[in-house]
Specification:
346 residues; mainly alpha; Arc Repressor Mutant, subunit A; 8 strands; 51% helix; 8% strand; transferase; zinc-finger; nucleus; WH-like_DNA-bd_sf
């Protein structure tokens, strides 16, 4: 297999140096280094990712995409596929900070309401000794102070391990969705019934006896079409999903684009027929007048295109000689024309 080019290296370096990148940012870098757009070169984009991951697999890394469950946006990032003791040495966080982060994560994912967040007060009240054994945390560091916790939360948010939601709560960051996919599965975090990914932030089935969870963006994809029945895929209970006005307009536009263009051609044909009908209903006198004008124009055009000959001049003179005479009698011009005609006959 050919080695990676500088274009592949640029994509890897961008993700490593900037952290997880939003989909549009990552695709913009791809377009800049390749000169190709994603819309028209989707296969080339996938080939780049496949080739990069084949090389990264030798060092237990992977370039993968994940979805932010709070807003549905897609992120790309590089993650470590092996969680061993050696890999833990590469982190910049202290042991108490890692234990505190683990406590925050567990509190978020085990929320029975599937809101995917906890309040800042709840995060600060998490005790480290409840998250790890005494052998993992030195006795001097068990009492992690409030100020240290606040500083740790700030760093986690800055590094995208956590996020601050619009309502002031704390949720998972893009890095957590990227790195903790296996951890979610191993800890039996409930999954989304549509995409089968961990349902950290999701909607619950209205039936309290049903455990089905579905991400909001998966609900939109599943229920936004009006023809789809809005029921729980697990128990069949009616799901209280309301199609927004924007979704309805988007669906109508999609249906319009999918309709064939045949009605437009029929409309044009009917329009042509209407013009013909209008022409046939035109008064006969007007049609005759217009026809006469067309004939005169044709005669004039023909006379201009032919050269003047002696026979044509003779015919014109004879026509003048035989022309009508006004009430005042033949004028001088008429008499001259007659004499000229007589000379021509002689």
């Amino acid at each position: 297999m050919a080695p990676l080019s500088w274009r592949h290296h640029t994509l890897i370096q961008a993700v490593l140096s900037r952290g997880p990148l939003k989909e549009n940012e990552f695709q913009s870098i791809f377009s800049d280094v390749t000169g190709k757009t994603i819309d028209s070169h989707k296969q080339l984009f996938n080939d780049y990712l496949r080739k990069i991951n084949m090389e990264l697999s030798y060092v237990q890394f992977e370039l993968r995409a994940c979805r932010n469950q709070y807003d549905g946006s897609v992120y790309y990032g590089v993650i470590n596929t092996v969680a061993d003791e050696q890999s833990k040495l590469g982190t910049k966080y202290t042991i108490p900070q890692i234990a505190f982060y683990k406590g925050v994560i567990e509190a978020i994912v085990h929320d029975t309401t599937a809101q995917g967040t906890i309040s800042n007060i709840e995060a600060l009240n998490i005790r480290l000794e409840n998250q790890s054994s005494s052998s993992e945390i030195p006795p001097a560091l068990r009492n992690f102070t409030m100020s240290q916790k606040e500083k740790a939360i700030h760093e986690f948010i800055q590094d995208q391990w956590l996020c601050a939601t619009s309502d002031g709560n704390i949720g998972l960051g893009a890095r957590s969705f990227l790195d903790l996919r296996s951890w979610f599965h191993n800890n039996e975090v409930p999954h989304c019934d549509v995409c089968n990914e961990a349902a950290i932030k999701a909607d619950l089935c209205p039936n309290e006896n049903c455990s089905v969870r579905i991400h909001k963006y998966c609900l939109k994809a599943k229920f936004s079409l009006r023809r789809n029945e809005k029921v729980c895929p697990g128990c069949g209970t009616q799901w209280p999903y309301v199609v927004t006005k924007a979704e309805a307009v988007e669906e109508e536009e999609t249906e319009d684009h999918q309709q064939p263009a045949e009605p437009l051609r029929r409309k044009k044909s009917r329009g042509s027929k209407q013009v013909q009908d209008d022409a046939s209903n035109e008064p006969s006198s007007r049609r005759l007048k217009r026809s006469g004008n067309n004939e005169n124009e044709g005669v004039a055009s023909q006379s201009q295109s032919q050269p003047s000959t002696q026979s044509s001049r003779k015919a014109k003179l004879e026509k003048l000689a035989a022309g009508e005479v006004d009430n005042a009698g033949p004028g001088p011009s008429t008499r001259r024309a007659t004499r000229t005609s007589a000379r021509l006959h002689r």
